[in-house]
Amino acid sequence: MECIFCRIIAGEVPADIVYQDSELLAFRDIHPQAPTHILIMPKGHIASLTELTRKEQALMGRLILLAKELAEKEGVAAKGYRLSVSCGADGGQLVPHVHFHLLGGRKLDDQLG
Ligand code: 5GP
Ligand code: ZN
After folding, report:
1. Cβ(32)–Cβ(98) below 8 Å
2. Residues with a CB atom less than 6 Å from ligand 1
3. pLDDT at position 113, please?
4. Centroid of ligand 1 to alpha carbon of 90 (angstroms)
5. Fewer beta carbons within 10 Å, N or C terminal of the chain?
6. What DSSP line would sit under 33-48, residue for residue?
């Protein structure tokens, strides 16, 4: 298995997991850009937003609700946070397994890119 996130999902590579169920996994980014920096993803390998289909509609909705719940749990919801996804080379996506970044705990830059 080449995908690093699939290896984490399989339990082959350790990660600081903050949530998991049969379909979704969330763990702390190894190089946090903010006091809270959590990566949230579907367990099934989907390379990027580009590969999403209607089949994943409900799953991605659940993922966003999970992000909201994790922001509350982390104590960053009241002051605000950012949920972002990079897609493809120009989007700056480094790991080709679709994932959302939940960032909070500090004032984030105005700029998105
Ligand atoms: P991307 O640019 O693809 O959206 O970001 C990938 C993110 O995954 C980066 O923020 C990077 O620090 C994180 N990351 C890459 N490899 C690992 C890893 O093995 N473990 C953890 N916890 N995070 C990783
Ligand atoms: Zn994968």
Report:
1. no
2. 4, 13, 15, 27-31, 39, 86, 92-95
3. 63
4. 17
5. C
6. SSSEEEEEEESS---S
- Give the distance (Å) from ligand 1 centre to CA of residue 74: 19
pTM of this structure: 0.97
Q: Which two tokens stand for residue 63?
A: 């993922």
Q: DSSP H helical segments within 1-113, as ranges?
A: 4-9, 57-74, 88-91
Do the beta carbons of residue 86 and residue 92 sit within 8 Å?
yes
Tokens, residue 54? 């209607």
Q: pLDDT digits over 16-62, tens only?
A: 999 999 999 999 999 999 999 999 999 999 999 999 999 999 999 99
Helix count and strand count (H, E) for the chain? 3, 5
The token pair at 39 is: 């990566």
Q: Which amino acid belongs to residue 46?
A: I
Give per-residue pLDDT as tens, 81-102.
999 999 999 999 999 999 999 9
**What are the boundaries of each domain within the chain?**
4-37+50-104
